[in-house]
Write a structure and sequence with these properties.
7 helices; about 130 residues; mainly alpha
Length: about 130
């Protein structure tokens, strides 16, 4: 909610691509932090910041779709977007459970957070993301 309230106050958001991907990068780092020995208050803070980052990315993504996709194609584009976003979740849940049994939950958080941050960082290098305003 905090991210939504902050972003909702903006009348014009500059550098949307970098803001959205930067928020996702921070979210990935927060997932990594959950696997570190930071105690319950640290984990709670990491989860709060991750939620903030997710809401910022989601709002920017939805707004960008609404601005850039022609109205007559919106249903198709959003359905493909949702399919791509959610189709592999059950596989991910299964792999994550298996990896947690094999490596331990803290290691899985550190690895998955690092991979997320690295992939988002690579995405930030693309000119289409850097120049999305």
């Amino acid at each position: 909610m905090l991210g939504s309230l902050w972003l909702g106050r903006k009348t014009r958001l500059r550098r949307r691509g970098l803001t959205a991907y930067g928020a996702s990068l921070i979210g990935g780092l927060m997932i990594l932090a959950i696997g570190l020995p930071i105690g319950l208050p640290g984990v709670a803070l990491a989860i709060l910041v991750n939620g903030l980052a997710l809401s910022i990315f989601s709002l920017i993504w939805t707004n960008t779709l609404q601005e850039m996709v022609p109205r007559n194609l919106m249903g198709r584009v959003v359905s493909v977007d949702m399919l791509g976003s959610y189709v592999l979740l059950p596989v991910g849940y299964g792999v994550t459970g298996w990896a947690a049994d094999l490596l331990g939950a803290p290691t899985v958080f550190v690895i998955s957070g690092a991979l997320t941050a690295a992939l988002i960082g690579l995405g930030m290098l693309h000119p289409a993301i850097r120049h999305l305003d």
